[in-house]
Amino acid sequence: MIDYKKWRSVRESSKVFLTPWEPTWHPGEHSLKRYLNLLSIYSQKRKNNTQYSYFIFNKNNELLGGINVFNIKRGVSQSCTIGYWIGEVHSNKGYMTKSLTLLLEHIFNNLNINRVEAACVPNNIPSKSLLRRLRFDEEGYAKDYLRINGRWEDHILFSLRKKIYNGQQKS
User: Fold this and answer.
1) Whole-prediction pTM value?
2) What is the average pLDDT across 60-74?
């Protein structure tokens, strides 16, 4: 609850910037009730080891954005999917690159994940550049993959495997 006002502020001030890449924002999207509901959902998923959700803060305790690690699969797969967002005033300053770099180390080395997947709409140049900078491989193109801002949108599919992350050659 302590970060609610920061979350609402950064999300609402970045609405025009974020809505082309996210599911439709409904009335009450950033209400306290919705926020508390999200925290409850995230807490339950964390307890079940099916999703981990993180806020990104700078050293001044300013909320910059967030990252979700979800679709966690164990057994023979050992994989997950990541999704992320950042406030407009904080974009293109290296915060997401640094945050994902730290989180990927945790995902591969502490959560014992072998493969991290991500997807973005083809015209999201900053997100594609970020994933490529982090050494994600472009693996495919999925038509009508996710409902973004009220429309089914195609997505480019990316993955990063642990052995690539740890510096081994691509196979």
Assistant:
1) 0.92
2) 97
**Structure tokens given for 101:** 């770099």
pLDDT of 165: 84
List, in order of start, the domains of the chain with CATH numbers.
4-165 (3.40.630.30)
DSSP code, position 51 = -
Strand, coil or helix: what is 110?
A: coil
Q: Which residues pair with residue 73 across a beta bridge?
A: 79
Please give the Cα distance from 108 to 101 (Å, whole number): 11
Q: Among 101, 162, 110, which residue's Cα sits nearest to residue 137?
A: 162
Question: CA 151, CA 171: separation in Å to the nearest integer?
Answer: 36
- Give the burial string for 69-92 (b: 16+ CB within 10 Å, else e): beebeeeeeebbbbbbbbbeebbe
